[in-house]
Description:
Largest sheet: 5 strands, mixed
Order of helices and strands: HHHEHEEHEEHHEE
CATH architecture of the largest domain: 2-Layer Sandwich
Number of strands: 7
Amino acid sequence: MHRFKKPITIFYFLVFYALAELTWWGYLLVDSNAKRMNMILGEGAVFLIILIVGIYFFQRIIKKESAIHQQQQNFLLSVTHELKSPLASIKLVLQTLVKRDLTKEKRDEFIKSSIDDVGRLDDLVENMLLATRIENNSYSYPKEQFDFSELLNSIFDRAIITSENKRQFVNQIQAGLAIHGDRFALGSLVNNLIENAIKYSDESSIINVQLNQIQDKLHLIISDQGVGIADHDLDKIFQKFYRAGNEMTRKNKGTGLGLFIVAQVAKHHQAKINVSKNNPKGTVFEIIFNGN
């Protein structure tokens, strides 16, 4: 907000100056020609209304720009943190492997840890690149017919591994369901929803992934038992960089790109997104795809 203080100060100074000049010139005109007072007051009122409307829209623009600037700052801080943590972990592992004579089991454990960290970095970079290409309208969404159930199962299995079995995953993915779509983009959609469920739910909580066909539509449902989404955040969660503002959410890592990508990918596949509360707590995301 500091970057906007100087322009706002100058703007309000000019507004004050214009009002002072308007009052002074109005007084002089009325004093010199009292017969035209009604006309002068009328023109002055029109000018004042235009000025007030201008001030109102200027304030809205400033608030919007300030919010975007704050979200971008939060995004940069989040990205920096998400990059720094796995890089520091990989560096430590490599230093340990070089300096110490470890058993094969321990070396394999360290190598696996580094591979997981590289996977996190890869997901982060892919999200950033995909979000940028989507926003620039440079992503073409190359579509093909493929086994959606198989893709979901591979992402599901990977999520169990990366979460280190600290959560209870329930697989209700109906086998053999095909879809005509962009494999990479839909994979990113599923991965972001599952990662979101992991990120905002406690350890040992249940994460349920469902895929089934109802008539000619595919229903993808991912539910968690996490902190949930406040009603006033529901219309904002799919905005780029936006993160829900409660304190618990702020403690979790994130860039604010995941649900933005989910919304855009769903839109380009003519899919509908429903977000609802889980029982007794948490969130349910349902993506409904039209049949082929």
